[in-house]
Design a protein that fits this description.
402 residues; alpha/beta; Nucleotidyltransferase, domain 5; 8-stranded mixed beta sheet; 6-stranded mixed beta sheet; 15 helices; 14 strands; globular; binds adenosine monophosphate
């Protein structure tokens, strides 16, 4: 196989991240990566850096909307300085109930995914916009969708079936699970060291936990949408449904329209809750740690809710797995927040999860369990873009054989 430049696009609510890999037989070299960030704010940023980390572009442009932002990316990629992609891989949080396989993107597929916006309302609108633009701005280049739900397709029905009336199960209301590309990349990196019973905690601004048996997902914390599961930056995580009913009834007097009420509930549960809601300060763990150091009790409570919830999920997934061989921390908090890892593991020693405080005092990939810990504890950064490149190369190969 000759060397193929593959563009990876990963959009968030206010950012578009991208990278270009050179893929050849079994080899994947990241040529460069970049991002437009702060879309819709007055803190727009656009940068590209090469494989050695050297900034090739570092600008603070006005980014009033995603159209301006993506045009910047497309213009930079067409400027002749970088190899033009022969294929594009898009990270997609949710494809809805009917799209569970990674595949080539067509206009019809985009329309279908867009019709399932309710399954990931914060992520889908920008992702489908970028897909349409990529088809337009890179004519003739095949585009592929890589789903964050894909890794979770191996869950048994008792893990994904929700305890709700069947008429809703029948239209796709179920647990899908997210962060799948991150989980897949942890199993990929562990390779032959992947143990039979593995729990991975992806702790970033969004946070989730997955139970993995023999390399395959058997349960995960996020549900129908990424709002479910553990408390995260601005999301409630799992919560008594009575809380949502309580809030809805309070809204009913001012908002007679159900769709508007749902939008307000969405803001309540997904944007104003979690670490931000409890602390009243920030959703950012670094800011919370600074506030805790200054004695802020609400920041302390928010982080304690976070670490305690994660410890509870680890315990329940140990029950599902029938024990545990390895616990892996990943994501911005999992990789960098030494105190969160220590606080999560503090009560888990009776379950065989024994952290070594000195080994834990590090950022980035490491083994952090004590030498006598029955469970190995590791920190492994995710390689989501690399997983997308692998899927794109596989799908390109399948396409050329058909
Ligand atoms: P992610 O969504 O994976 O980019 O992770 C974002 C989260 O990681 C934010 O809450 C950050 O505050 C947190 N984070 C990133 N770097 C650090 C660090 N050095 N120490 C503590 N938390 C960090």
């Amino acid at each position: 196989m000759s060397s193929l430049p593959v563009l990876v696009l990963n959009s968030g609510s206010s950012s578009i991240k991208f990278s270009v890999y050179e893929a050849s037989d079994g080899r994947r070299n990241r040529l460069f990566e970049g991002a437009v960030d702060g879309i819709g704010t007055d803190r727009g940023a656009f940068w590209i850096k090469d494989a050695s980390g050297q900034k090739l572009i570092d600008q603070s442009p006005a980014l009033p909307n995603r159209a301006v932002a993506f045009q910047l990316v497309a213009d930079a990629l067409h400027a002749g300085q970088y190899p033009l992609p022969v294929a594009i891989g898009h990270r997609m949080v949710s494809g809805g109930p009917t799209i569970q396989q990674n595949q080539r993107i067509t206009s019809e597929l985009i329309d279908e995914m867009e019709s399932y916006t309710a399954f990931a309302p914060l992520h889908t609108p920008i992702a489908v916009y970028i897909m349409r633009e990529a088809l337009r701005l890179f004519p003739g280049v095949p585009n592929f969708v890589c789903l964050d739900t894909y890794f979770h397709r191996t869950m048994p029905e008792e893990a994904w079936h929700m305890p709700i009336p069947d008429e809703y199960s029948a239209i796709g209301v179920r647990r899908y699970g997210y962060h799948g590309l991150s989980y897949e990349s942890i199993v990929y990196q562990l390779g032959a060291e992947t143990p039979s019973r593995l729990i991975v905690a992806h702790l970033g601004n969004g946070a989730s936990i997955t139970a993995i048996r023999d390399g395959k997902c058997i349960d995960t914390s996020m549900g129908l949408t990424p709002t479910g599961g553990i408390i995260s930056g601005t999301r409630t995580g799992d919560i008594d449904p009575g809380v949502l009913l309580f809030v809805l009834r309070r809204m009913a007097a001012e908002i007679p329209n159900t769709a508007d009420a749902a939008d307000k509930l969405e803001v309540f549960a997904s944007k104003k809750a979690g670490l931000l809601g409890v602390s009243g300060l920030t959703n950012d763990m670094r800011g919370l740690r600074d506030a805790i150091a200054q004695g802020n009790p609400r920041a302390r409570l928010a982080v304690t809710l976070f670490t305690r919830t994660i410890a509870k999920w680890i315990g329940s997934f140990m029950a599902v797995l029938g024990g545990l061989d390895m616990l892996v921390f990943t994501g911005g908090i999992g990789e960098n927040d030494i105190a969160s890892r220590a606080e999560i593991c503090a009560g888990l020693a009776p379950l065989g999860i024994v952290l070594d405080p000195a080994r834990n005092n590090t950022r980035g990939a490491a083994v952090i369990s004590a030498a006598n810990s029955p469970v190995i504890i590791r920190v492994i950064p995710p390689l989501e873009d690399l997983m997308i490149v692998n899927h794109v190369v596989r799908l390109l190969g399948e396409q050329s054989r058909t």
